[in-house]
Amino acid sequence: MPTTDDALAGTPGRATPDPASPDRARPDPVGPPAEYAPMGALALTDHERWPSLPTADLVRVEAARQHPAAPVWVHATGDRLDTADLTALAARGRTQQSATPPDWVAALVERAHATVPRYRAAARDGRSGPSSPLHELPTVTRHDLVTDLAAHVPVDVPLDRVLQGTSSGSTGAALVVPLHPRAVAADLLLLHALVEATGTTWVADAARLGLLNLVDQRAAFTYVSAMSAFPRDPGVPAPLMARVNLDASAWRAAGDRERWLAEHDPQVVSTSTLPLVHLLDLAEAGLALHPLAVVNGATHVTPAVRRRVHDVWGAPLLDLYGLRETGPVAVAGEDAPGHVVVDRRVHVEVLDPAGRPVAPGERGEVVVTVDENPYLPLLRYRTGDHAALGSTADGRPVLLGLEGRAAVRYLDASGVARPSVDATQVLQAAGLVAWHVHQDAAGGVLLRAVAPDVLAAQAAARAVRDWLGRDVALDVLDDVADLGPGKPARWSSDVPGLG
Questions:
Q1: For residues 67-80, b (16+ Cβ closer than 10 Å) or e, as one string?
Q2: What are the Cα distances from residue 312, in Å, to 7, 305, 337, 389, 490?
Q3: Which pLDDT band, with edges at 50, 70 and 90, does 25 fall under?
Q4: Would you say residue 469 has pLDDT above 50?
Q5: Which of 142, 241, 263, 469 is deepest in the core (most CB within 10 A)?
Q6: pLDDT at 489 over 70
Q7: How far is CA 201 from the centre of its chain?
Q8: pLDDT band for position 176 (50/70/90)?
């Protein structure tokens, strides 16, 4: 599942990738970290990885691993779901969303003060208790989890089924997140429901890869898996999924990447903006893919990229927002006013820097309370992302103008600090695919832009100039990869107090 940690199309003026050979090879004098050594840590058999699946399904997994054009698989993993898990997952119902904390939040507060060390200590000290209203509890930060994760894990949950997830974040130390098999599988079920809510039918098809989780980076965990919990009729084989790296170094021979993707023709592609655009490039260069839907996560998706998905594949694009720590939080569909909070045990607040709720429609930091992962229930977790909180016509909470990580402000010529979210609309209107806007300490502005053409980039630079009343230097890039790793829509400032 894509999160804000994981994490573009052949445009005029840029070289079109050669479909016959891997491209974008990058020198790697140091080499990947040891944890990415292929199959460097194997401890389970396939029957232990998928205890609920018949041998015939496991044979299909192994055949996918051994495909002659397969990439270098780095990892072997399974969903660990047993029959009791599948029964519990099938019985899950929808959680009705509302602007006020639902009943399950009060139950979580009470349970946390009985079982979670952080809140047990708070109860002993009289700082909060099982009946405390949510808004009176202190917020939790990523730093809290990095420095003392154990303080947030309930003491009454057996730890014999912990799966390990990692979150590198955009800043700060990496975080190891304990995950429960059912929580991971519930993300898949949510993904299936969101795809089908677009009017798309997603059923198991043994002739195609069910789900492709796509990255494009120097080193990555890659593997084949089977989706035990995927909704299907009795006797229908579990669809396969794979996590694949588009980077040339991940493939054994020229042409393997294109052959493998074409022969597996994934039904749904889950990815982030950079690998999505790379895949679109390959499709426009002749790679025959027919995705039913595309799910973008981890990075901002521009209207230009959304249009390309429609033009190339005619498929809906869902922009799914979440973090590894919280799981999926909200989704923006084709015509949604913003990112609508998903129907699960997730409650969203928007707070100011002091932790106070802002007025409806005002921007602030997105703070999430979630009770989906038994190993890590979270009360008022500060995401570092910013948005305004509104509601849909039917009263569901929606994040408006969602902007990843800390909002950056820019100093205009009159000395007014302007939020980067204002520039988002300006740059999107110019048709940019991706960008980086930087202001130096003296106030100078540089726009680095990936655009359909030079005229669009120049129009964007003029729009930023008019917005700030300052001259704007322009650097037109051929490739989103030239922006470097990380979020392709980004902001930075060296002006003291604004960056």
A1: eebbbebbbbebbb
A2: 22, 10, 24, 33, 26
A3: very low
A4: yes
A5: 241
A6: no
A7: 23
A8: confident
Residue 347 φ then ψ, to 5°: -125, 135
For 325, the token pair is 């720590």
CA of 348: how far to CAs of 97, 104, 208, in Å?
A: 10, 13, 37
* Dihedrals phi, psi of 312, to nearest 5 degrees: -80, -45
DSSP reduced 3-state for 309: helix
Q: Which domains does the chain have, with CATH numbers?
A: 34-80+182-322 (no CATH), 103-160+326-403 (no CATH), 409-493 (3.30.300)
Q: Is the pLDDT of residue 109 over 90?
A: yes
Segment 7-21, tens digit of pLDDT: 222 222 222 233 333
Q: Which residues pair with 382 in a beta bridge?
A: 367
Phi, psi at 448, each rounded to 5°: -105, 120
Query: Would you say 154 and 374 are in contact if contact means Cβ atoms under 8 Å apart?
Result: yes
Q: Kindly report which listed range (7-21, 159-173, 470-484) carries the lowest average pLDDT score.
A: 7-21
